[in-house]
């Protein structure tokens, strides 16, 4: 689908960029701060905590969709072209979107992950992009974003630095809370089984093994052989629970649950925060929800 529509989108976006590329967007609509656009909701929340009321923040990928599968529409590129800066996770998450923006707009594209010790994919070339599932990595994101915002908008430096300091403290408290919570799970039951093996950063940070039906961005997802392998692992480890993601088709993990006789303990958030009313509307609340779900399911 991406290959089919690529040329068409390029032509549309080129027209959009030509219409607005000569105009310097400068600051946000109120004459202060910056117009900030980012790729997905988790980064949007992080940026809002740092930018505060000084700058406006919007994100492209709707909640509930996966950033690496999202098909941008022309209005998305219009928003990016009108922005002062476009922040992306990097590590291959938004690679093709990033290339399109760089080829059709003068807006600066900034990766927030250059200081991350990235994990390589296990079954293919490339890097695992889900670094935000380790809170310490998000703290590194905050430092990169803070420094970049201060450089772009020196008049707002005091606001950005103060907001980042407060948010870093909140993240440190979250990090300590997670470590406290996972100690309640018996060590032999600290294995997270999920559809897409996206929790490797979380596992390395907090002492879990992780198992996915498929690896990230796999062209073969949910094959009988993949499902059978995971069912065997669940039975062999005598795990009390498996889990599903909010942005992934649940039918595959339902099959694993049925074939292994092990219940699905709940949904976790991987590539997006929760919708309003979910209790997981922010990155911090999302992580707390995930940890509570893992602890409840694996402590049985």
Describe the structure.
The protein is an alpha/beta fold and 300 residues long. It has 2 domains: 2-177, Nitrogenase molybdenum iron protein domain (Rossmann fold, 3-Layer(aba) Sandwich); 183-298, Nitrogenase molybdenum iron protein domain (Rossmann fold). The chain is built from 10 helices and 8 strands. The chain has helices at 2-20, 41-51, 74-81, 95-104, 135-152, 157-182, 200-206, 224-237, 251-260, 283-298; strands at residues 35-38, 56-59, 85-88, 108-111, 191-196, 209-214, 242-245, 264-268. Strands 2-1-3-4 form a 4-stranded parallel sheet, sandwiched between helices. Helix 1 packs parallel to helix 3 (74-81). The chain is globular and about 60 Å long. This is Manganese-binding lipoprotein MntA.
CATH superfamily of the largest domain: Nitrogenase molybdenum iron protein domain
Q: Provide the succession of SSEs.
A: HEHEHEHEHHEHEHEHEH
Estimated share of beta-strand residues: 5-15%
Note the quaternary state here.
Answer: single chain
Choose one word for the global shape: globular
Query: How many DSSP-defined strands?
Result: 8
State the name of the first-level CATH class of the largest domain: Alpha Beta
Which terms summarize this structure?
300 residues; alpha/beta; Rossmann fold; 8 strands; 46% helix; 12% strand; globular; disordered N terminus; manganese; Manganese-binding lipoprotein MntA
């Amino acid at each position: 689908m991406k290959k089919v529509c690529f040329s068409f989108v390029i032509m549309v976006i080129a027209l959009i960029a030509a219409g607005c590329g000569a105009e310097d967007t400068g600051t946000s609509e109120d004459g202060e701060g910056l117009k900030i656009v980012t790729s997905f909701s988790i980064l949007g929340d992080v940026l809002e905590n740092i930018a505060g009321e000084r700058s406006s923040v919007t994100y492209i990928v709707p909640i509930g969709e996966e950033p690496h599968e999202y098909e941008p529409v022309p209005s998305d590129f219009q928003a990016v072209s009108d922005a002062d800066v476009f922040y992306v996770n990097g590590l291959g998450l938004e690679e093709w979107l990033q290339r399109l923006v760089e080829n059709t707009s003068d807006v600066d594209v900034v990766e927030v992950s250059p200081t991350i010790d990235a994990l390589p994919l296990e079954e293919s070339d490339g890097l695992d992009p889900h670094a935000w599932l380790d809170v310490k990595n998000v703290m590194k994101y905050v430092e990169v974003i803070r420094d970049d915002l201060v450089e772009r908008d020196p008049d707002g430096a005091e606001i950005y630095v103060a907001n980042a300091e407060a948010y870093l403290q909140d993240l440190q408290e979250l990090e300590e809370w997670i470590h406290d919570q996972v100690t309640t799970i018996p060590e032999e039951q600290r294995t997270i089984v999920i559809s897409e093996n996206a929790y490797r950063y979380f596992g390395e940070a907090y002492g879990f093994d992780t198992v996915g039906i498929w690896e990230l961005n796999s062209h073969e997802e949910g094959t009988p052989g993949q499902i059978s392998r995971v069912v065997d692992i669940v039975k062999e480890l005598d795990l009390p629970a498996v889990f599903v993601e909010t942005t992934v088709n649940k039918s595959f993990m339902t099959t694993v649950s049925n074939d292994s006789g092990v219940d699905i303990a709940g949904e976790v958030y991987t590539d997006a925060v929760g919708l309003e009313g979910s209790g997981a509307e922010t990155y911090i609340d999302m992580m707390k929800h995930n940890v509570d779900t893992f602890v409840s399911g694996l402590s049985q």
